[in-house]
Structure formats: C-alpha cells, structure tokens
Amino acid sequence: MMAKNLFLLPGDGIGPEAMGEVRKIIGYMNSAMKADFVLDEGLVGGCAYDAYGAAISEEDMAKAMKADAVLFGAVGGPKWDHVPYEVRPEAGLLRLRKDLELFANLRPAICYPALASASSLKPELVEGLDILIVRELTGGVYFGEPKEIIDLGNGQKRGIDTQVYDTYEIERIASVAFELARTRKNAVCSMEKRNVMKSGVLWNQVVTETHKRSYPDVKLEHMLADAGGMQLVRQPKQFDVIVTDNLFGDMLSDVAAMLTGSLGMLPSASLGAPDAKTGKRKALYEPVHGSAPDIAGKGIANPIAMIASFAMCLRYSFNMVKEADNLEKAIANVLDQGIRTGDIMAEGCQKVGTSEMGDAILKEFANLSA
Ligand code: NAD
Ligand code: IPM
Ligand code: MN
Q1: Which among 271, 288, 309 is the end of a domain?
Q2: How many helices (H) and strands (E) does the chain have?
Q3: Domain end point (choices 271, 302, 319)
Q4: Complex ipTM tops 0.85
Q5: Which residues bind Mg(2+) (predicted)?
C-alpha cells in the first residue's frame, strides 16, 4: 500500500483544538484499520507570523505542494489585527489556495435531522436540507489587480479591489458544478449579478454555453446573487448545487451554514484540476468557520466541521468511500444520541466539550468500521 501523505496546518484559535480530534481519528485508522496515513505538520496564520514574520513559510508551502492532501484548521485573531496586510494570517490561506490552484471549493450544507431545531429557520424549512455550494476560489475580487489603496493627494484615499474573471475560470468551475450535480439531484443554480457587473454578464454567458455544449441533461437556472441569498433563507430546499464566484460564495456559504445549525458544522474541500498524467488533484480540506477567538482555548469548540472536512478528504483525495460514509454516519449517530457542543445545544441534550465530541464520534466510527 502506498503511504498517504497528509500535511496538517492547524493554524490559530480553535483550529488546533478541532484538528486534535481529527488526529485521534487518523491515529485510530492507522492502528486499528491499518490505514497508511503519514502526517507532517506546519504553521499557518498568526502562529506562522509569530514564528517567521510570514503567514506561511516557504518550507511549509513546499510541503503543502508535495502532500497528497492538506488539512487546514483556521487562521486569524485579534492578536494579529494590526500586522501588515501582506502578512496577516488570512494571507497564508489565500496563498495556499492560489499557489496550489485550488479553484473549486465545495461547501456542502447538510441539515442533520437531529439539528433541525438548532437552525435559525423553522425546522420544516431545513429538515433534510442538502445543498452543495460550489465556490470559485482562485479568482474574482479576491485576487484581481489592481488591489491597493492610493493616496489621491487631497486628503482623500481610494481603496481599489478588482473583480476579474476569464472564460476558462468560469468554464472549469461550471463544469465541476455540473459534474457534481449529475451525482446528486441534477440541478444547478448559477448566481451572479449580471445586472450591474460585466464579470456577471460573462459568468452568465459562459455557464450557459458550458451547459449547452456539455451538460444539457442537467437542469440549469440563473439567479441574481442578492435574490439568491434571499431564496436561500426563504426556501433553501429548492436548491441542489449552487455555483457562484469567490466573494458571493464566501457570503452565501456562511448563510447556508446557519441553516444547518452552526458554523461549526460546515466542512469544505478545495480542489485543483486533475493532473493530466496521474489524474491526482491537489486538495486542501478546511472547515468553513474561522478561528473563533471568542471561544478559543476553552475546549468547547465544535469539531464536527473539521472532522467532516476529513471525511471529504477520504472521499475526494483517497476514494475511501466506505470510510467517508462511516465517518459522516458516525457524526449523524452522535447527534441522534443528543450529544452536543454548546453552539448546537438544545433542551434535553447532553452538553460536551471538543474532546468529548471527538471521542463520541470516534467511538461510533469504530463501531461502524468493525
Ligand atoms: P468565526 O467563524 O471564527 O466565528 C464566528 C462565530 O461562530 C463566533 O461566535 C464563533 O464562536 C462561532 N463559531 C465558529 N466556529 C465554531 C465552532 N467550530 N464551534 C463553535 N462555535 C463556532 O468568524 P469571525 O469571528 O468572523 O472571524 C474570526 C477570525 O477568523 C478572523 O480573523 C477571520 O479572518 C478568521 N477566519 C478564518 C477562516 C479560516 O481560517 N478559514 C474563516 C473565516 C474567518
Ligand atoms: C472562508 C474565509 C476566508 C475567505 C478568509 C479567512 C480569507 O472567510 O474560507 O470562508 O474569505 O475566503
Ligand atoms: Mn468565509
């Protein structure tokens, strides 16, 4: 069996706390299930800034490039609010996405039946919810040039960010969305703002052409992104796959997270293109949530988003479908048993910390894998 090289970047705040629970699962898989994960670990975000004065070191970038998959915790926190923009913690994550060319960010929002009442919406609106947001991750306003603050010389400054999309970038993310829709309910909703943005006009055209050329069997709908946000909280179950740009995808996925009960529930996979020779893709798996400075260090963070991100890693990087299914089932079973971290706590449930939640999921996973 070929070793599977995982590069762990726990990061800041609750990142290392959540990653600790994934380590337990990997440890179990290596010892009891004879899996062959080889782990290495680096620094990213504020902790990397403290150690090297950069949001990620060149050495750790090289390791991320070489790894079969990267597991990422979270970065940022008030301690680094005033460090220079270029080396702020979030820059480490953006560099990883850009340099590894992880253009496709898959953000599933699934409402586990046991959590329907933890959502901010009425249970009947979210029960059985299963949406996949496909967010473009290496383009748009996050990376477009110019990106700067210029001094206008009259006491005024101008902040500039530039939204740019080329045809190939839209084509490849649309293709990912259509391919994934075929494995689900076969419906894609593309969101942009073609009514005010030129990049939105192009986005709409290219998605339409890609659909017509290669995926006519998939149902395609277009929505203006603001209306899409509204529909997402009005009637979320109307959606199957949503494909959208980097910034809209960032915002809409936080909205979708709350439909499922908590930001602490949402995993994500950031994938590159398959290598022409080997078919392997670069990949990074990260929860959608951030470093949660308000609860960091208290041992109360919900590790489910991080654990579910590892399940996505098993599925997408290693084709370990059975193991991924079991890990997701283990999460659902633990929620069914009424075990809850504070963010998803409900009446009559048992409140636990990060580590107890991880242990409970591992126990279920072990049972299911036996
Ligand atoms: P956040 O996601 O860190 O927290 C938002 C709220 O959700 C907080 O109240 C927090 O306690 C709660 N929350 C988040 N994850 C949770 C979990 N696993 N369990 C329980 N509760 C959880 O967002 P924020 O406060 O806007 O940002 C804090 C820092 O994180 C900022 O520096 C931001 O840039 C950074 N950030 C990083 C990432 C990332 O590393 N991928 C993502 C988003 C934000
Ligand atoms: C996310 C985060 C990041 C983003 C930040 C931390 C750079 O909010 O992954 O959703 O804006 O993409
Ligand atoms: Mn975000």
Answers
A1: 271
A2: 12, 14
A3: 271
A4: yes
A5: 226, 250, 254
Q: What is the largest CA-CA distance in the chain?
A: 71
Determine the distance separating the centroid of ligand 1 and the alpha carbon of 346, expressed in angstroms: 21
Identify the domain containing residue 24 by its residue range: 1-103+273-370
Split into its structural domains, the chain has a count of 2
Q: What would the pLDDT profile of 206-241 be if each residue is shown by its tens digit?
A: 999 999 999 999 999 999 999 999 999 999 999 999
Atom of ligand 2 lying closest to residue 250 CA: 10
- Return d(Cα 341, Cα 360) in angstroms, integer: 12
Same domain flag for 114 and 174: yes
In tens, the pLDDT along 8-27 reads: 999 999 999 999 999 999 99
Q: What is the C-alpha to C-alpha distance for residues 68 and 316, in angstroms, rounded to an integer?
A: 11
> Are residues 170 and 220 both part of a single domain?
yes
What are the tokens at 158?
């101008």
Which atom of ligand 1 lies nearest, measured to the CA of 342? 20
Backbone φ and ψ of 153, nearest 5°: 80, 0
Q: Are residues 267 and 325 in the same domain?
A: no
Q: What is the CATH number of the domain that holds 254?
A: 3.40.718.10
Among 49, 112, 142, 215, the active-site one is: 142
Whether 240 is catalytic is: no
